Amino acid sequence: MILVGLTALSEEIEGAEAEGIQILELHAPKAVLRDRDGQVTAFLTEPKIIGKIDSGGRPRPEAADGADVAIPCDMVIVAIGQQIDSEHLEHHGIPV
Asked: Which of 4, 5, 37, 57 is deepest in the core (most CB within 10 A)?
């Protein structure tokens, strides 16, 4: 399993790595690729670099020169925040 584009506590990252999860840093989620039958084939990410510090004192990611990265997979699990608003996923036929 690979985690992409996450903000997490150091304990959460350490726990994930201890379970064998690979973390892909500085890659923004871009798209879920599907075959003709609608089955997931890959997760597309856009490489980023650390950019200038914003008004809140946090460095903002900027687009890198590298090509997008397609991570082969057959399932994508959305895990953002404490709760997920899945209504829009269901609207597009994605089982939740």
From this structure: 4
Contact 13, 7 (CB under 8 A): no
Residue 73 tokens, joined: 């997979």
Of 6, 54, 51, 53, nearest to 27 (Cα)? Answer: 6
Residue 41 corresponds to which tokens in the numbers above?
């084939």
Burial, 48: exposed, middle or buried (Cβ in 10 Å; 0-12, 13-18, 19+)? Answer: middle
Torsion sign over Cα 5, 8, 13, 15 = negative
Closest to 2 (Cα-Cα) out of 66, 84, 71, 88: 71
The pLDDT tens digits for 29-53 are 899 999 999 999 999 999 999 999 9
